[in-house]
Structures are given as C-alpha cells and as structure tokens.
Amino acid sequence: MDRILRIDASPERNSSWARSMGDYLIKGLEVRSPRLSISNRDLSQILMPHIDETTIAGFRRSPVTMSPRERQATSLSDLLISELQSAEVLLITASLYNFGTPSSLKAWFDQIVRVSRTFDTREGVHMGLAKPKLAFVCISYDEAMVGCLRQGTPPDFMRGHIQYLLDFIGVPHVFVIGEPAPNKASESFEGDGSKARDQIDTLLDRFFGIVTASSLTSLADQK
Ligand SMILES: Cc1cc2nc3c(=O)[nH]c(=O)nc-3n(C[C@H](O)[C@H](O)[C@H](O)COP(=O)(O)O)c2cc1C
User: According to the model, what pLDDT value does residue 52 have?
Assistant: First the structure.
C-alpha cells in the first residue's frame, strides 16, 4: 500500500487544521512505508467545475460514441478518475462547512462517481469499482458550533456522506478522524494542540506497522 492519493479541500491553505492532520498522517506513513509515493489534488488550487448537461450526457455514453463536446466535458472526470485508480490508499482532508461537505469536495465526488468507471450495476447487483480499498478522512470543525442549534441535532452531515460515497464506489475501509480546530492560532497540531494524533498513530500502526527506532533512523539516512 505505497501509492497514496491526497485530496485537500480546505481553502485555508496555510492555517488549515484538517491539512495539519493530513500532514501528520503522511509523516507517519513515510516512516512506516519508505517506498511511499504521494499524489496531491489540492481543491483550493482549481475551481472544480460543476458537472453540467454535456458532462452527464458524456457519462452515459461509451468513449467511442461521445461527441467532441462530450469528450471535452468529461476530460476532467477522466483525469480525476485516473488519479483515483492509480492509488492504493486515499487521504481526504476537509473542513466542515455549513454542517456538511464543502462544495469543492462535493464537486470532486460528482466528477469521480461515474457509472462504468467507479461503480456499476451488473445483473441487478451494485459493484464499486474504485481501486483504493482503504481511506483516511481528516475532518476539522468548530467546537462552538456543535449542538448550537438544537440539542441532539446531528451537527455533521459530512462524515456519513463521505463514508457512504466511498463505500458506494468500492472503498470499504474508511476511517474518519474528526477534531475541532483550537481557538488559539498559536496551537500547533504537532505541539499539544491535538488529541487526534494518538488516533492517527493507532490507525497507522494497525495498517502499516509499528514504528521502530531503526525505521526512523533509516528515514533520516535517506534525507
Ligand atoms: C463558511 C464556513 C462554514 C462553517 N461551517 C461550520 C459548521 O457548520 N460546523 C462547524 O462545526 N464548523 C463550521 N465552520 C468552522 C470550520 O469547520 C473550522 O474553522 C475548521 O477548522 C475549518 O477547517 P480547516 O481549519 O481545516 O480549514 C465553518 C467555517 C466556515 C469558514
């Protein structure tokens, strides 16, 4: 499990807590899996287009019968799906916006959830076709907003949404690490600011092996 696709959704590139969680996870992977190769898709860097009528028409056709306009309208989806299908592990970092999935990440899912490519129905049976079978999802939110409207109202519609979508395309093992961002800008994820670090360490030990002193030394030697 050496090929990672990392998707970052927070627009706050320099202060994002979810991105810090992702950075910590990647560092933990690097010491456990020295041959790691990481591809990045930063959703703050491009305005992810909404799928439109032509894109959807193209999604419904095979590539040979597509018009030039449909081929053009589905080319980004082709690229994003090829990034996904080249990965063994998916890492998503995202901020909770208005109690749900940020629109850039939803737009990414709209591009990659595609019939015959990442899911299909054969003889009435649903099949997920995504190559990665393991995903880590780092979610950051604001503790002050939890339960602020009504006690008992679920404040996070993103967690279940992402888990369901990944399961739908055939990523069965999805681990969500959620943590409120600290109020103080001075707190750092690698300082005392985070409780999620232990959770990340435990997950990485489980899937990629326990870090030993010798693995840390060999990583330092490579740098
Ligand atoms: C437009 C916007 C909407 C937000 N909506 C919510 C929300 O519904 N619930 C919540 O807990 N936090 C909400 N927040 C706070 C962010 O989730 C929080 O600041 C988080 O740390 C942002 O993630 P990041 O630090 O990775 O960018 C919102 C922030 C913004 C800018």
Answer: 98
pTM: predicted TM-score of the whole model, two decimal places: 0.92
> Atom of ligand 1 at shortest distance to CA of 94?
26
Any idea where the domains of the chain sit in the sequence?
Answer: 3-222
Does residue 33's CB lie within 6 angstroms of at least one atom of ligand 1? no
User: Please, what are the averages of pLDDT over each run of 10 residues along the chain (223 residues)?
Assistant: 94 94 95 92 95 98 96 98 98 95 98 97 96 96 75 75 97 93 76 84 88 60 57
Looking at beta carbons, which pairs linking 45-52 to residues 24 or more positions away fall under 8 Å?
A: 48/104, 48/107, 48/108, 48/111, 49/76, 49/107, 49/111, 50/107, 50/110, 51/77, 51/107, 51/110, 51/111
The CA R_g of the chain, rounded to the nearest whole Å, is 19
Q: What is the dotted CATH code of the domain comprising 3-222? A: 3.40.50.360
Judge if the beta carbon of residue 108 lies within 6 A of ligand 1.
no
